[in-house]
Write a structure and sequence with these properties.
Number of helices: 10
Oligomer: single chain
Distance between the termini: 62 Å
Radius of gyration: 23 Å
Strand content: 5-15%
Number of strands: 11
């Protein structure tokens, strides 16, 4: 009897301790405060593949697992912590292409600088005479929606001759497909080239292209898709399996889209209206739709990324002297703005915006716009202080 009383008393005490500790635990963040997590409605098999992709995305590579010998980082997640934006310590350097004729420094380590090396090797340096640019890693959420926007819709948004006379043109980055890639079901070709949509200058065709490039150029890891070792220039056995590559691609395809916060706040609503009024929405399109996707929950969906996936002339201040594919040195793909307000959570508590992280506030980023965005920037500068605050508050809500 005494033993039973002792057991019951112990259990009661443990329950009270657990309940007391729970009071001091921080509340779980709401869905609109975090970037990671799958889209809703995946099947059991798809959820399993998502988790496998999450594991592969988080795997830390060592030299015994194929890292290097030259590399930038040793895992996908180190550049995209919490699936969000990177920071200056994870910023990449691309070099060697100053015009659209092709990269002349591919035999000298181009196109990406591997500034780290495993023991016994020397990291790369930028060759003399090579142009270069620094790219801060973007957030990776919602990418599946962007992948399945049809080529026809992208071309519908393009206006290379500014036919509507709003000062905004926008063109796709037409590039040949790499050997391991297949055209999408909605693909439109032009002289053997296809519309690319991912990356700062839209130089990656799809998420397989982006993922294979990251393994090879960021981590020095070969695959059956890209078997060339970045150090020796030789074709070597794959260091990552096709399954892991495919799982990472699926993971990126099925990460949920960022969720806007406080969208009914009157000041946020005012800021959204101002965003449209000063023509920011000409490039940062608020709403797009997907076409067919083999992933059912991505087919024919309406979503709100604030991008047109096109290249735009951003003016001389953002001309980095470097280009990829058909993109000129002053052209940049419109970055999606969704998730913008959550950027500081993965950037050390502050903003590092624009392609190279040079802007530390949203207003700084706005004021760096030029070229096709010059008129919108001037309109922003002429807003009343309260209107500027409302516009910034809207952008922070995304």
């Amino acid at each position: 009897m005494r033993s039973l009383i002792l057991i019951v008393s112990t259990v009661i005490i443990l329950i009270l301790i657990i309940q007391s500790c729970e009071k001091f635990q921080p509340a779980a963040p709401s869905e609109d405060e975090i970037l990671d997590g799958p889209i809703e409605g995946l099947t059991n098999a798809e959820n399993i593949q998502f988790l496998n992709g999450d594991r592969a995305f988080s795997e830390v590579y060592t030299s015994s697992k194929g890292l290097g010998p030259l590399f930038v980082t040793n895992s996908c997640v180190s550049c995209h912590s919490g699936d969000g934006k990177g920071h200056p310590f994870s910023t990449l350097t691309r070099f060697g292409q100053s015009d659209t004729s092709g990269n002349q420094f591919l035999t000298m380590g181009g196109p990406q600088l591997q500034h780290r090396a495993i023991p016994g090797y020397e990291p790369e340096s930028i060759p003399e005479g090579a142009s270069f640019s620094r790219f801060t890693p973007p957030a990776v959420t919602g990418l599946g929606y962007l992948q399945y926007v049809t080529d026809a819709d992208i071309l519908e948004m393009a206006d290379p001759n500014d036919m509507d006379n709003d000062g905004v043109s926008g063109v796709p980055n037409w590039m040949p497909l790499k050997d391991f890639l297949q055209p999408s079901t909605n693909a439109i070709s032009q002289n053997g080239k296809y519309i690319h949509r991912f990356g700062k200058k839209a130089s990656a065709y799809d998420l397989l292209d982006q993922t294979v490039g990251a393994y090879n150029q960021d981590m020095g890891i070969t695959s059956t898709f890209s078997p060339i070792d970045t150090y020796s220039g030789l074709s070597i056995d794959p260091e990552v399996s096709d399954k892991d590559v495919r799982d990472v691609v699926f993971y990126l395809e099925t990460l949920k889209a960022p969720i806007q916060r406080n969208k009914d706040d009157p000041e946020v609503v005012q800021g959204k209206n101002l965003f449209v009024d000063i023509n920011c929405a000409a490039c940062h399109k608020p709403t797009l739709t997907t076409g067919y996707s083999p992933i059912d929950k991505l087919s024919n969906k309406t979503f709100h990324p604030y991008t047109d996936l096109l290249l735009h002339d951003m003016g001389s201040n953002l001309d980095d002297g470097y280009t990829e594919g058909a993109a000129q040195t002053y052209e940049w793909r419109t970055p999606p703005l969704w998730g913008l307000g959550l950027s500081p959570t993965t950037q050390g508590g502050q903003y590092f915006l624009m392609h190279d992280g040079r802007a530390n506030t949203i207003e700084e980023a706005i004021l760096m716009h030029g070229g096709e965005a010059q008129s919108s920037k001037l309109l922003y500068e002429n807003l009343a202080e309260q209107e500027k605050n409302a516009l910034i508050k809207f952008l922070e809500s995304l």
